[in-house]
């Protein structure tokens, strides 16, 4: 065994792609630029609300304009952006605009990588000129054994940005994946990412039709996908291969991104959990301003631990304060756990009185 295993279940033969290093820290915004894609991959996991629709999301939030994209990046103190879809090449002008927008606002050190199935030298040159740092090609499965018919080699030789391959480790496709990875290594790509295949709500029927099964009850990973990736890594010990596990994507990458955003937006009274969620106390009253004065006058709760949230018709305060005084208050009180996303999705609420 020539590769290194990580705690998350991932593995690598060598140095990870630069974009992956940012993702491990959770410091990249995910910019979904369109749900359109012509590749037609049966395993596509994109949600029904995004698939095929020409919509834009910055992380979990719909983005209607440039300002909202910048605001989301600033909210998580993003060090970079991963541009995804659908296929960003389906709306290339929009993608080029966003690359320039982010580079102009955050500077050249804001690392941007992009996923696409369109292996085009012309597109690659335009993307690099706009400021793209790293491109990850996702060739269709029917191209895995005939990559010499694509422009991949010309792209690697013609551009200065990092060029890599990223595909799912399809069980039973060790031979095709090995041929793909061998060719890509031969023409000089910087990295080859093999992702653990996963079930989703939108691909479930097609995955079952191909005979795939769930790995276990704890994840959506496909049985045999990890083993397939490891076989390819063993067959090509000198290739720049990285197996990205389902556990890593959910347990490390997503959690770290949420935690980073939570720590960046947390108020004095918020508690950031290890999972990246936020705990706070909330108070309901027909007179929010009056209830806020009541907390200040009768319990000496300082101003920086009280916020009147008129939008949600509640008062926010410190969970540790409310836990001590809730039984004495004439208001309904709860401790809530929320995601640090713009919609502040509530995970759990616990009544205190």
UniProtKB/TrEMBL annotation:
Assigned keywords, A-Z: Iron, Iron-sulfur, Metal-binding, S-adenosyl-L-methionine
Recorded superkingdom: Archaea
Alphabetized SUPFAM superfamilies for the sequence: Radical SAM enzymes (SSF102114)
This protein's name: Uncharacterized protein
Species whose genome carries this gene: Methanomethylophilus alvi (strain Mx1201)
Domain DUF8061: 276-352
Domain Radical SAM core, first and last residues per copy: 33-135
GO MF terms, alphabetically ordered: catalytic activity; iron-sulfur cluster binding; metal ion binding
